[in-house]
Amino acid sequence: MCGIVGYIGPKEAMPILLKGLHRLEYRGYDSAGVALINQQGTLNLYKCKGKVSELEHFLTGKDGSGNIGIAHTRWATHGVPNDVNAHPHYSASEQIALIHNGIIENYSLLKEALIEHGYTFRSSTDSEVLVNLIEYIRTTNGCTLIEAVQQALKQVVGAYAIAIIERNNPDRIIAARQSSPMVIGIGGEGEFFLSSDAASIIEYTEDFVYVGDGEIAILDRHAPLRIVNHDNHEGRIDIRKLQLSIAQLEKGGYPHFMLKEIFEQPKTLVDCIRGRIHPETFEVKLSGVIDHRERFLSARRIIFVACGTSWHASLIGEHLIETLCRIPVEVEYASEFRYRNPILSPDDIVIAVSQSGETADTLAAVELARKAGAFVFGICNVVGSSIARATDSGAYIHVGPEIGVASTKAFTGQVTVMTMLALAIGREKGVLDASLYRTLSQGLSTLPEQLEQLLSEVAPRVEELAKIFTYAHNFIYMGRGVNYPTALEGALKLKEISYIHAEGYPAAEMKHGPIALIDAEMPTVVIATPDHTYEKTASNIEEIKARGGKIVAVVAQGDSLVRHSADYVVEVPVVHELLMPIVVSLPLQLLAYHIAVNKGRNVDQPRNLAKSVTVE
Ligand code: F6R
After folding, report:
1. Residue 417: predicted pLDDT
2. Contact 412, 269 (CB under 8 A)
3. Could you tell me if the CB of 310 is within 6 A of ligand 1?
4. 251-432 and 456-603, same CATH topology
5. Is 205 touching ligand 1 by the criterion CB < 6 Å?
6. 446-449 long-range contacts, Cβ below 8 Å, gap at least 24?
7. Where are the domains of the chain?
8. Which residues of the chain are modeled with pLDDT < 50?
9. What is the architecture of the domain spanning 251-432?
10. Cβ-count burial of 267 within 10 angstroms (0-12 exposed, 13-18 middle, 19+ buried)?
11. If DSSP codes are grouped into helix, strand and coil, which group holds residue 16?
């Protein structure tokens, strides 16, 4: 969480910084700020509570000149979201300004020590402690800024991506990283960009250097990029090319990124399966599996680690792999797994699933699994992200930048990759029936067209339904089997963007407690598509009806049973039951979207959330 951006070069920094902040706003939008050094050598710092647009307003009439600057958009961890806690933070003497994404875990100890040395603090943030620690070391030891940063970081426990500028040093930005993302863009001569996410600076360069853990980058307008570690050993500069179309970062005529991303899914599915499912033979080939065939064939167990929506996708992955590969699967919240001293062995495969590839808990789970000798496979969206780089192998979902905070196309992309993964492993292991293999791989290939059709048919219907349920205070989502996680995901979409309380349940569990909640005020969204539990789900619907509950049922075209008991029906195309979660998710995403819009919520930037959770 939090987005950081920096610029040094011949151009005016402010427009680059503000544009970068807008693109990084998905990472947090509690406050925003910039610090620049102007031609006269003045270090100006402006910050305020609220979104980047509020910062822009606040900047009116202020001196925003300078061709070196750093900027920040915040997701609050330590200290409430207000002007004072906003970044950048000045050091006590106002000579140094710092931006920080992450958490300094031992900040209170460091703060106490600095207070003893006479420091006072304006904010309640951990970040202000770090900038003062750097200043303290710089002034008491009489060392250079880089040396002070190196010494300070040796004392820090936690996660950080920081960037620092100093009033008397207008030719340099010092940046450092530990566990939080940071990438440097190489521009023209003497020009560097810095960001939490390459997408935010993609229009200026295609050449990027990912800063590694424990590395400090020196961006100097008179010298090539340097990377050193805390002991000043030079690091390698590994420049990677990255191409991304700017159009992918814009709303493209849609009122919200979320709606655009929902409607993009037919296309993102095509991108996700391109080159992986042969268009004529329907053979599935995933290089991440081919290159490590023996590991997959000898896997004793597969453990998914993920958070949030990616965890829901992993629950679907469990069904897919157990059904198609007959390998036992466990699905773990990364945050629990990492602190649980899990039993791992070298013949375990850990699959880390993460849209951003930066989720702190998932990254820590990956590190733990690797240390324990497990083979780690990543399913990520963001190319070059920390998790993608930390894993032994992997498969990108290739759905393009997901900007709406609520995950939509990444979820269906993850499930698509998991389906291909299960097909590829099941086939290699020889446990997967050839006709089922063909049905599913061909089914995946034709899914984009079906999704296109589904969206055009179902979107107006769901928009109408949303009007009926906008003022409900609670919702239940029910599904069984592979659609139980789909129900969980539907409920999460609704709660995170509309702030309506919603719970997902396996349909048969209702009788064990939750059915007590049912009354005429409690809508239940039921996924009742054809599979071996369909009739049972139909009975579960009757049980809710009998208690006066209102039912919205997602059924397959041609359904004749459930449509009679449900109050409202949304039809989806008939596909194989293992592909159904992808199909069913689209109307559920739309339902959450329209309810949130009707309630006047900020759909793309819901309160208290951030897209990339880089703190644990
Ligand atoms: C919900 C959502 C979150 C993320 C979770 C993990 O819509 O987006 O629940 O799924 O924070 O993020 P990634 O997938 O980036 O690891």
Report:
1. 98
2. yes
3. yes
4. yes
5. no
6. 447/269, 447/416, 447/575, 447/579, 447/582, 447/583, 448/266, 448/267, 448/269, 448/270, 449/266
7. 3-244, 251-432, 456-603
8. none
9. 3-Layer(aba) Sandwich (3.40)
10. middle
11. helix
Q: Which residue is listed with tokens 């179309």?
A: 245
pTM for this model (two decimals):
0.85
Pocket test for ligand 1, best of 333, 407, 494 (most atoms within 8 A of CB): 407
The rounded Å distance from CA 332 to ligand 1 centre is: 14
**306 C-alpha to ligand 1 centroid (Å):** 8
Contact between 269 and 586 (Cβ < 8 Å): no
pLDDT of the residue at 258: 97
Q: In a 3-state reduction of DSSP, which class is residue 264?
A: coil
pLDDT recorded at residue 504 = 97
CATH topology of domain 3-244: Glutamine Phosphoribosylpyrophosphate, subunit 1, domain 1 (3.60.20)
Catalytic residues: 2, 611
Tokens of 567: 């109050």
pLDDT in tens, 64-118: 999 999 999 998 887 888 999 999 999 999 999 999 999 999 999 999 999 999 9
Dist. CA 310 → ligand 1 center (Å): 6
478 C-alpha to ligand 1 centroid (Å): 21
Architecture of the domain whose range is 456-603: 3-Layer(aba) Sandwich (3.40)
Question: What is the per-residue pLDDT for 444?
Answer: 97
Beta strands in 221-370 (DSSP E): 226-229, 239-241, 301-306, 329-333, 348-354
Q: Which of 68, 69, 65, 47 is nearest to 56 (CA)?
A: 47
Report pLDDT for 614.
77
What per-residue confidence (pLDDT) applies to 57? 97
Q: What is the pLDDT of residue 16?
A: 98
Q: Does the CB atom of residue 407 touch ligand 1 within 6 A?
A: yes
CA 428, CA 299: separation in Å to the nearest integer? Answer: 12
- Whole-number pLDDT of residue 246: 78
Nearest residue (by CA) to ligand 1, atom 8, is 407
355 lines ligand 1 (CB under 6 A): yes
How far apart are the C-alpha atoms of 579 and 571, rounded to whole Å?
15
Q: 99: burial class by Cβ within 10 Å (0-12, 13-18, 19+)?
A: buried
Lookup result for tokens 């002070």 = 148
pLDDT attached to residue 20? 96
Ligand 1 near 589 CB (within 6 A) = no
Q: How far is the CA of 119 from the centre of ligand 1 (A)?
A: 39
Q: How many CB atoms lie within 10 A of CB 297?
A: 14
